Amino acid sequence: AASRPAVFRRPALTGISTTGPVRDALLRRNPFLMSRPRRWLAASLIVMVVAGSGILVRGLNYGIEFTGGRLIEYSTATQVDPERARDALADAGFPRAVVQSSGEGDLTVRTEELTDTEAATVTKTVAGLGGETEKVRDELIGPSLGEELRRNALIALGLALGAQLLYLAARFRLLFGTAAVSALAHDVVILVGVFAWLGKPIDGVFLA
Predict the structure, then answer these.
(1) Mind listing the pLDDT tens digit for each residue in 111-124?
(2) Domain 69-141 of CATH type 3.30.70.3400
(3) Cα 205 to chain center, whole Å?
(4) Taking the chain, what is the end-to-end CA distance rounded to the nearest angstrom?
(5) Per-domain boundaries in the chain
(6) pLDDT tens per residue, range 53-90
């Protein structure tokens, strides 16, 4: 696009006529971020310790996919916004319910294990938003499936880190590959620790 005559004659349109204010400021200051490596390493270590303590002290709030529960799919007369349904179910006593759209206007609700009375309450809540409601699917998600998902998630993470280490070691040097993979693992620990401190659910969306 930059080679087109109309654009080429007006370089200011694309920003290629100047280096830009950010780059100019960096060139003037010429910062050397690694001038104090021990300070950055200490800050990184502190953040990792705080994140790791969150995992150990508060633990992880595993979602329905990991702990097992119940999945109910509804077909409603009028389409229901998942956010509205989520709020209504939270008010009805199901704050951990995961609500998603599915199919053509259907609604999927994933919760912890429910009694028949609680399942009827969920159905009544959804019907209050969408009018006439039909239960299309009602399945139990066993804890064994959750354990398998947890194991597969750890295996996938290990394979991804190992593959990156091998590629970077072959393409550059083993030291660079180890540093890059260590930085990635460092980021994963911090992210999981933040979720632990905030009590956010670890579910399929988190893994994606």
Answers:
(1) 888 888 898 999 99
(2) yes
(3) 5
(4) 34
(5) 69-141, 145-207
(6) 999 998 888 777 777 788 889 988 888 888 899 999 99
